[in-house]
Structures are given as structure tokens and as C-alpha cells.
Design brief:
single chain, 159 residues, mainly beta, OB fold (Dihydrolipoamide Acetyltransferase, E2P), five-stranded mixed beta sheet, five-stranded antiparallel beta sheet, elongated
């Protein structure tokens, strides 16, 4: 790839909505990143080396951490329902796997310390435990969807 081709690529990317492009060939590795609309585009090119013999990578290890909920707050002054909120940003899962049963469903009773869901953050699966005892009234988040910090996940009617 010649310099004029790289410049054309940079111009094309600056006019498109892309923020990052990575191109890798046997001769060239090119990474173009745009940090904001006003910032210049960064270009990095470096030669790549081909390994003579493949090296076996260790099998990935699934890590599971336990996290307690940050806050359980009342939904409204007139309501006795308590909201279980997300303690972190990540992906919400209702079960431990696609073929596994949900941790809790609407109508289920929960006790303090019972796992109600999993939130995956940076390849780490965090078991979220209830801080209240009661009955799950409503599940507020769909399975396998992103959640934000402090986003309501469940409504619980306390015992």
C-alpha cells in the first residue's frame, strides 16, 4: 500500500461515520483512530512477523465474581415496592446459560443473598445477589441486553 493510498483511506474515513479502522495484510498493519470530530486522525503502520510454528494458547478460563447490589431503593413514596438496581455497567443475563433455568421470574420469592441475575462486565460474570427478601413483582430488563449503572432490574414486594 502506497502513501497516496493511505491518504485516500484517511480522507474516506474522515468523511464517514467510522471512528476506528484496522487493516492487516501480510506486509502491513494499519490502525486509524478518530478521537473526536475536531481531532486529527492517527495512523500507525508497522511490519508484521509470521511465526514459524503455531503456539497452542491456553484455554480461556471463565471467571465468576460475586457482587452485592449497590442500592435497593423504594420505587415511589406511595408504593411499597423495592427496586433492585444494577451495581455496574454490563450485559444482563437472567440465567447461567442459554439452556439453564432463570435465576428468578415474576412471582418467585427471594431471600437476602439469593442470586437474581448475572451481569457480564469485561468478560467477567458477576453474580448479583438480592439485598432484600420478598416476592419478585416484575423483571424490568430483557435477557442479554446491556444495562447501565444504577438501572432498575427488578421490582420486589418486601416480606
Amino acid at each position: 500500500m502506497e502513501t497516496k493510498d493511505i491518504q485516500k483511506l484517511i480522507d474516506f474515513i474522515s468523511q464517514s461515520g467510522l471512528d476506528e479502522v484496522n487493516i492487516e495484510t501480510s506486509e502491513l498493519k494499519l490502525a486509524i483512530k478518530r478521537y473526536s470530530n475536531a481531532a486529527p486522525v492517527a495512523v500507525q503502520a508497522q511490519p508484521t512477523y509470521v511465526a514459524q510454528a503455531p503456539v497452542a494458547a491456553p484455554a480461556p478460563v471463565q471467571q465468576v465474581a460475586t457482587a452485592t447490589l449497590v442500592a435497593a431503593a423504594p420505587v415511589a413514596e406511595s408504593s411499597n415496592l423495592i427496586t433492585i438496581k444494577s451495581p455496574m455497567i454490563g450485559t444482563f443475563y437472567r440465567s447461567a446459560g442459554p439452556d439453564k433455568a432463570n435465576f428468578v421470574d415474576a412471582g418467585d420469592d427471594v431471600t437476602t443473598g439469593k442470586v437474581v441475575c448475572i451481569i457480564e462486565a469485561m468478560k467477567l460474570f458477576n453474580e448479583i445477589e438480592s439485598e432484600v427478601s420478598g416476592k419478585i413483582v416484575k423483571v424490568l430488563v430483557e435477557n442479554a441486553t446491556p444495562v447501565e449503572f444504577d438501572q432498575p432490574l427488578f421490582l420486589v414486594e418486601p416480606n
